[in-house]
């Protein structure tokens, strides 16, 4: 189930706050993705790390993990969700954590 695609280098629009998060990251290869409950399971080859951009509206409730560690998610292109992948990442789980109302309000205003 390997996905082979060639894409031109893309330009990501990020705020100054997140510019340093993506400044030194390389490209990655997408092997497969699978839709799972509340998110995705994605297989990548990212020996130098990279930025994985999802076509999902950015909300602070998207959470990403690889190798048991939490990964940083940031808004890109004004609306999309990006995951910062450390070098050597192979499997990424991205999930939408459906919080209680008080957690929602707290995250939106912090």
Short description:
This protein is mainly beta and 110 residues long. The chain is built from two helices and eight strands. A hairpin with a 3-residue loop joins strand 6 and strand 7.
Task: For this entry, give a set of tags.
110 residues, 14% helix, disordered N terminus, 2 helices, mainly beta
Describe the protein's architecture and organization.
By secondary structure, the protein is mainly beta. It has helices at residues 16-22, 101-108, and strands at residues 29-36, 39-46, 50-57, 62-66, 69-71, 73-76, 80-85, 89-96. The protein contains 2 helices and 8 strands, in the order αββββββββα. A 5-stranded antiparallel sheet has the order 1-2-8-4-5, with no helix packed on it. Residues 1-8 have low confidence and may be disordered.
* Continuous helix count: 2
Distance between the termini: 41 Å
Instruction: Give the neighbour order of strands across the main sheet.
Output: 1-2-8-4-5
Main β-sheet: number of strands, strand sense, barrel status?
5 strands, antiparallel
Please, what is the oligomeric state?
single chain
How big is the Rg?
14 Å
Low-confidence stretches: 1-8
What portion of residues is helical?
10-25%
Structural class: mainly beta
Total beta-strand segments: 8
Q: How are helices and strands ordered from N to C?
A: HEEEEEEEEH
Classify the beta-strand content into a percent band: over 45%
How do the helices and strands line up, and which of them pair or pack?
Elements: H1 16-22, E1 29-36, E2 39-46, E3 50-57, E4 62-66, E5 69-71, E6 73-76, E7 80-85, E8 89-96, H2 101-108
Antiparallel strand pairs: 1-2, 2-8, 3-7, 4-5, 4-8, 6-7
């Amino acid at each position: 189930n390997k996905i082979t695609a060639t894409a031109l280098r893309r330009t990501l629009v990020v705020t100054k706050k997140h510019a340093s998060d993506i400044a030194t990251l390389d490209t990655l290869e997408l092997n497969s993705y699978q839709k799972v409950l509340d998110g995705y399971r994605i297989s990548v080859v990212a020996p130098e790390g990279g930025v994985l951009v999802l076509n999902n509206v950015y909300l602070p409730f998207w959470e990403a993990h690889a190798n048991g560690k939490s990964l940083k998610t940031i808004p890109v292109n004004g609306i999309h969700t990006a995951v910062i992948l450390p070098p050597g990442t192979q499997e990424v789980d991205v999930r939408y954590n459906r919080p209680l109302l008080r957690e929602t309000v707290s995250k939106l205003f912090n």
